[in-house]
Write a structure and sequence with these properties.
The protein is of the alpha/beta class and about 260 residues long. About 40% of the residues lie in helices and about 25% in strands. Strands 6-7-8-3-9-10 form a 6-stranded mixed beta sheet, sandwiched between helices. Strands 2-1-4-5 form a 4-stranded antiparallel beta sheet. A hairpin with a 2-residue loop joins strand 4 (about 60-65) and strand 5 (about 65-70). Helix 5 runs parallel beside helix 6 (about 170-185) and helix 8 crosses helix 9. It is globular.
């Protein structure tokens, strides 16, 4: 892929005898919304943590923004944004105080902090809530604030690890509107999810199961592939695609 923001080649991560990430290879382009789809325990979060420089791979290689995950994780962490499903916010601070705090954590230059704060408040539609205590915000508003804090330092690559868990469907859809805004501005956005409908929002997907990528492509291309395999299913959903791919993977494992 030209202008790849992320390159992963035969990545493996083991914890003792357990293989959490099994020979994963893929690329993510600049400005692409790339999804890791799979059930809990599929290896999505472990893969993302490796790419964020938080875990060292057992073997294989990966580069993020041109930096090697094994040899230069510090540079990676300075050049990415990361948001987990737990929303690392301080409930006893206001919205604005959280933004101020994370501006310092991410090393936003003092002369740019007001500008970046204004951008985040506007982007997340939190200007009128800047003085609200964070603990009083709904899950959807906390989600927006966490995203805003993750991009205060204007990173070119953003990792969102199960970011929509625990929020209602309307808040989830609004959150994806923000993701598209970031993508259209040229940022690469990598999202892990187990919600099938969210898979439709990604430009491309890696379907993960038992640590392996069992399918890779755009939502439409994956549906087209299933349609070719199962002629009786003329209008497959992403759930149909994923179930079919998992069943095929299980069959291959039994044969092996």
């Amino acid at each position: 892929m030209n202008d790849a923001a992320i390159v992963v080649d035969k990545l493996v991560k083991k914890f003792g005898d357990f293989v959490a990430v099994d020979n994963v290879s893929l690329e993510v382009g600049k400005g692409e919304v790339f999804g890791f789809l799979g059930p809990n325990g599929a290896g999505k979060s472990t893969t993302i943590r490796i790419l964020c420089g938080l875990l060292s791979p057992t073997s294989g290689r990966a580069s993020v923004g041109g930096f090697d995950v094994a040899t230069d994780p510090e540079s990676i962490r300075r050049n990415i944004g990361y948001m987990s499903q737990k929303f690392s916010l301080y409930d006893d601070l206001t919205v604005e105080e959280n933004i101020n705090f994370f501006s310092g954590v991410y090393g936003v230059p003092a002369n740019l902090r007001d500008e970046r704060k204004g951008y985040v408040l506007k982007m997340a539609n939190l200007t009128e809530r800047r003085d609200s205590m964070t603990r009083l915000l709904s899950g959807g508003w906390k989600q927006r604030l966490a995203l805003g804090c993750a991009i205060l330092h204007d990173p070119p690559i953003l990792f969102l690890d199960e970011p929509t868990s625990g929020v209602d469907p309307i808040a989830r859809r609004r959150f994806w509107d923000l993701i598209y805004q970031l993508s259209e501005a040229g940022r690469s956005v990598i999202v892990s999810t187990h919600y099938m409908e969210e898979a439709e929002y990604c430009h491309r997907l890696a379907l993960m199961y038992r640590g392996r990528v069992i399918a890779l492509g755009s939502p439409q291309s994956l549906k087209d592939e299933l349609r070719r395999r199962a002629a009786e299913n003329t209008d497959p959903s992403m759930e149909d695609v994923f179930i079919s791919m998992i069943e095929a993977a299980d069959r291959e494992t039994k044969v092996a």
